[in-house]
Amino acid sequence: LTAMGESSMDPTISAADSAAQQDSLFSMMDVFLISLITGLFTYWFFFRKKKEEVPDLPKMQSVAAPVRDSSFIEKMKKTGRNIVVFYGSQTGTAEEFANRLSKDAHRYGLRGMAADPEEYDLSDLSRLSEIDKSLAVFCMATYGEGDPTDNAQDFYDWLQEADADLSGLRFAVFGLGNKTYEHFNAMGKYVDKRLEELGAQRIFELGLGDDDGNLEEDFITWREQFWPAVCEHFGVEATGEESSIRQYELVVHTDVNMNKVYTGEMGRLKSYENQKPPFDAKNPFLAQVTENRKLNEGGERHLMHLELDISNSKIRYESGDHVAVYPANDSSLVNQIGEILGTDLDTVMSLNNLDEESNKKHPFPCPTSYRTALTYYLDITNPPRTNVLYELAQYATDAGEQECLRKMASSAAEGKALYLSWVVEARRNILAILQDMPSLRPPIDHLCELLPRLQARYYSIASSSKVHPNSIHICAVTVEYETKTGRLNKGVATNWLKNKVPDQNGSSSLVPMYVRKSQFRLPFKPSTPVIMIGPGTGIAPFIGFIQERAWLKQQGKEVGETVLYYGCRREHEDYLYRDELARFQKEGVLTQLNVAFSRDQAEKVYVQHLLKKNKENVWKLLNEGMAHIYVCGDARNMARDVQNTFYEIVSEFGNMSQPQAVDYVKKLMTKGRYSLDVWS
């Protein structure tokens, strides 16, 4: 453009030159037009050819077919199964129970299979009657505030919308819940009720397992009555086979390419070396720990604040969401198991499912080493369930020890009592059992088959993405206690996180994590008042909430009253985020800061006592200000006591009877004005 501008300014160009330039211009224009037409014709010709050729490639059409093997009916017919056990599982327990029930079936001349509802089309339930002596069992855990587990969400949605005729379906349901939560076993109850509404026939009563009590005993008690009911319904008898059946076979790899061996990845091989979004439970992001500081000034406990760097991960989060982290077991525990069993932990092996039709080819990512399996994939710190003891009993060479294991795995009252005292209450993990039973030396591969998977741990995020878009903050307390046998038991995740020291470029500070969305959300309108109640580490999401309200205020938004009720043991010992809260109060973002120090005086003071003390103000915010209430922390005592306090306040100032006050608070929950993020 500069050259053309310069030549048009030149006064010495003659008329002849100008004509020659014009001719040249026309010829250039002709060439350009011809080239353009030729190009367009060529493009059209090839494009048209492609369009015409597509139908001639039938192989291409098969690629578009659904990837998942969605018909469990066809699979059952193909493999000769007549019992299908679906599981809605968040932490693996419901899946474990489903596997145990499907294995039980062979004792009654039946064949079972455990199935993840996420992998199948559940509308096929109406076709189950095509299979002789068929039965569908549902082991359904309830998650959060009465919600389905992630893998049962589609099934739940289908049940709500379905108008299917399930009159030929026979079913039974066992629910897994926790009585400390408001909506105890909501999912199990709903599935049981809804299947009956759709015409299905219940062949055994709904089982309600309570994890706040003894979930294992609840399951065993239900199971021992369930199978006789199945036998009676189908006219079958127990075969008497009580033998141990291996589900997986061991393959030891002596000559293996180490690039094909899993070293702790949750899904894709080498996913930790070559990170690709999106990040989720099967593909966690390796976040660098950029800060790890102790929050408390004194006391025996270790309370900590960690910051995880999520830069370049494309991970998005909102205040109130949860961060899931995959921990690793203590290497000293792993080494001790290896020593006791006389095993080379660096042996590379695979455990392959003997049922070739199963969707679950391995119990954990394989091939891998025993060391990796025991470190990253298996739960070695929780007391093992009775089915593990039953399977292990055959390896005890001492008759007394073998009898003891079999008794604890039995459904007899004496056996249940022994299991409760010797395993559950004494908090004996698999290492402690091996130490206390010197003749019990099972093959390590069978032990690895039996142990449940090590689960991700969830923490309420203690930051706002508006203020910290590239970092996620965690507030946690390390778990450490002495058992009845004098052993020191340590929480897997919190002690592992405690040792994650910020590091320039070492793997020692990397944490595999992903974000799980939550319903625990600030009100849509910033001007809506909020009452936050979170003692101890329950303060975590409220640090994020307050950060966000401060940010909104900086943006010029009108921010409503922000009230916090916080509690700890002693003011000068474990007052978490004291300086940050003081700063927020000084800036006028935190309009009320009420702190209960439970042990600083003779009489214990908790958050519910401060709520009662300020009851008039609480009612005014609730009734006139349409405030939203948020409760985070211990479900067993604190959340229940706080809820009872709100019943009292509503009853007194709203001139309501106790049942009316309860109904008022329940309606607040339904409307999303009373939210809980609690754990037991």
From TrEMBL:
<dbReference type="GO" id="GO:0003958">
    <property type="term" value="F:NADPH-hemoprotein reductase activity"/>
</dbReference>
<dbReference type="GO" id="GO:0050660">
    <property type="term" value="F:flavin adenine dinucleotide binding"/>
</dbReference>
<keyword id="KW-0288">FMN</keyword>
<feature type="domain" description="FAD-binding FR-type">
    <location>
        <begin position="282"/>
        <end position="523"/>
    </location>
</feature>
<feature type="domain" description="Flavodoxin-like">
    <location>
        <begin position="83"/>
        <end position="227"/>
    </location>
</feature>
<dbReference type="InterPro" id="IPR017938">
    <property type="entry name" value="Riboflavin_synthase-like_b-brl"/>
</dbReference>
<dbReference type="InterPro" id="IPR001433">
    <property type="entry name" value="OxRdtase_FAD/NAD-bd"/>
</dbReference>
<dbReference type="GO" id="GO:0009725">
    <property type="term" value="P:response to hormone"/>
</dbReference>
<keyword id="KW-0256">Endoplasmic reticulum</keyword>
<keyword id="KW-0285">Flavoprotein</keyword>
<dbReference type="InterPro" id="IPR001094">
    <property type="entry name" value="Flavdoxin-like"/>
</dbReference>
<dbReference type="InterPro" id="IPR003097">
    <property type="entry name" value="CysJ-like_FAD-binding"/>
</dbReference>
<feature type="transmembrane region" description="Helical">
    <location>
        <begin position="25"/>
        <end position="46"/>
    </location>
</feature>
<dbReference type="InterPro" id="IPR008254">
    <property type="entry name" value="Flavodoxin/NO_synth"/>
</dbReference>
<keyword id="KW-0521">NADP</keyword>
<dbReference type="InterPro" id="IPR001709">
    <property type="entry name" value="Flavoprot_Pyr_Nucl_cyt_Rdtase"/>
</dbReference>
<protein>
    <recommendedName>
        <fullName>NADPH--hemoprotein reductase</fullName>
        <ecNumber>1.6.2.4</ecNumber>
    </recommendedName>
</protein>
<dbReference type="GO" id="GO:0005829">
    <property type="term" value="C:cytosol"/>
</dbReference>
<dbReference type="GO" id="GO:0010181">
    <property type="term" value="F:FMN binding"/>
</dbReference>
<dbReference type="InterPro" id="IPR039261">
    <property type="entry name" value="FNR_nucleotide-bd"/>
</dbReference>
<keyword id="KW-0812">Transmembrane</keyword>
<keyword id="KW-0274">FAD</keyword>
<dbReference type="InterPro" id="IPR017927">
    <property type="entry name" value="FAD-bd_FR_type"/>
</dbReference>
<dbReference type="InterPro" id="IPR023208">
    <property type="entry name" value="P450R"/>
</dbReference>
<dbReference type="Pfam" id="PF00667">
    <property type="entry name" value="FAD_binding_1"/>
</dbReference>
<dbReference type="InterPro" id="IPR023173">
    <property type="entry name" value="NADPH_Cyt_P450_Rdtase_alpha"/>
</dbReference>
<dbReference type="Pfam" id="PF00175">
    <property type="entry name" value="NAD_binding_1"/>
</dbReference>
<dbReference type="InterPro" id="IPR029039">
    <property type="entry name" value="Flavoprotein-like_sf"/>
</dbReference>
<dbReference type="Pfam" id="PF00258">
    <property type="entry name" value="Flavodoxin_1"/>
</dbReference>
<keyword id="KW-0560">Oxidoreductase</keyword>
<keyword id="KW-1133">Transmembrane helix</keyword>
<keyword id="KW-0472">Membrane</keyword>
